[in-house]
Write a structure and sequence with these properties.
Chain B: The chain crosses the membrane at residues 21-43, 86-107, 119-141, 170-193, 214-239, 281-303. The complex is a heterodimer. Chain A is mainly alpha-helical. Chain A has 2 domains: 18-79; 89-299, MetI-like (MetI-like fold). Helices cover 70% and strands 0% of the residues of chain A. In chain A, helix 2 crosses helix 13 (264-297) and helix 12 packs antiparallel against helix 13 (264-297). By secondary structure, chain B is mainly α. In chain B, helix 4 runs antiparallel to helix 5 and helix 4 (77-108) runs parallel beside helix 8 (167-177). The longest helix of chain B is centred in the first third of the chain and has 37 residues, at 12-48. The N and C termini of chain B lie close together (9 Å). Classes of the chains: A mainly alpha, B mainly alpha.
Chain lengths: 300, 316
Amino acid sequence: MTTTYAPAPARQTRAASPHQAARGRASRRRKLVWIAEHAVAVGLACAFIGPIVFIFLTSVMTDGQSLTTNLWPHHWQWSNYRTVFATAPVGTWLVNTVLYAVAATAATLLSSVPIAYALARLRFKGRNTAFLCVITMMMLPPQVLVIPMYLMWARLHLTGTIWPLVLPSLFGDAFSVFLLRQFLLTVPEDYLNAARIDGCGELRVLTRVVLPMMRPALVAVGLFSFFNAWNDYYGPLIYTGETPAHWTLALGLATFKTSHAVQWNLTMAATLIAMAPVIIVFFFAQKAFIEGVTLTGVKG
Amino acid sequence: MATQLQLTPAPLRARLRRNRLRVLLFLAPGLVGFAVFLVYPLVMTVWLSFTNSNMISPARFVGLRNYRYLLDGDPLIWHAIRNTGWLVAVMVPAQVLFALGVAMVTARLKAGASLFRTLFYLPALAPPVAATVAFVCMFNPNSGPVNRILGLLGIHGPLWFNSPGWSKPALTLLALWGSGTMMVIFLAALLEVPAELYEAAELDGAGSWHRFRYVTLPTISPVVLFATVTGVIAGLQYFTQAMVASQVANGNIQPAPGYPDGSTLTFPQQLYIAGFNQFHAGYACALAVVLFVVAMAFTVVLLRRASGFDIEEAPR
């Protein structure tokens, strides 16, 4: 905790011998600090990545070995991944999850951009109030509203399907609106005014000038809403918990160990199937993720 | 916009009306969503909390009966309140401190900083259900690697997810593993602290602790506050990991909420059980109202400090 980030100021001493000794000590100390810092970082990296490696190694063990404390598989039993699909309807869960995630992402992007643009770039009375409403929606625990929402969807005969999870995204997602607005505030007003003077209406300004500039923010929001849906457990539990045909991967995985597999190896294979898309996409689009996260927190 | 008004000779009133129409058009989906998915259910939650609604037959007004049941009647609710309180008071601060520490280490790295940041952030994206299942397996007292490693160090590991005393600390370790989002936010804030401030402090003879206390901390404190409040609100909602951990660790097909011994029963879980297992929708709504009041109190703290949202900075 007692560390600094500023580089130590360079000593402006001549090469006189006592000074040289001091300089030697300082550089040795700096080298030791360098090693210590990087050792801590490597240790942390092992702790962060270790569980994922463990999941993978366990997922290819034989039934017998996954009951032991062995860490390295004696026999790489790749067929576990086929067995998983045969022991539980993992395929159905996957299809449902992809449907939910794709639909929710498309709906979120479509609906949130104009709202964010109005909040960041249009002048109107009550704009700050409107933005406070967005923050309130973002901060509100979903559990607060869940009973009336369930009753509402039940009256529309949509409980037991993924529609209650997708349809609300058509009306703007608070977190996405927030993130897009933060990004839009960084777009220089001059660009927009130039287009306005050229006679563009606000819709044209948005689609022709702002949207192309927004690509990184759109990618971040799209990724976040995709994985939000992919990772969601509470929503599917509430609305499709009673209809296994509409279960998502999160729901199925939660009961996988207790209802389908005695051994850990198959459970870990199913776990890795749920994690894999996140890991793969992350390594291709990590910049977008990290820029997105930074955008939500750095404005102080 | 001001320039536009001067450049265009159209009458001002007509332009203002058109502007209002345009704003309405842009905001329309959000306004509908706000009414249907926030205002309506919120009003209904408050109303239902004063009824005996059971989700099927029509609700009847029962006054404060649900709230009285909450205060003395529900045998499990104080368990749930204590557990959620523990998570907010221990897990969230632990997460903030850990993320801050990791961010400070990462900020100092000269080689491979962005690689390390990537690795530290990755687990934050892991699906909570998958992460929880994996942790229960890793912390399994018989076959898991954690107690084996502890054993090599001469420590007799606890029962973790199977022990009432260790289940919440185990969930805390799971939360630390996934605290990459906070870490990225802190790291960005740390890298924005102006280097001149450190140089000035150093010239004044400030040691590294003083530089942290009087330069770093004041500069990043709005971000820390933002992360703490959002962390607290996430702590109040804590549901998935607790529910899945108890299910998997218990190993029984019959759900055992709060296993072991009610130690992981959180407030939102009790709300879920009341509403969707016992069909006491009225009582569940009373719990929801309590959750709403507490979450909003923390949100107000955040907005009072007006950090993180730069409402004032929006172009006028």
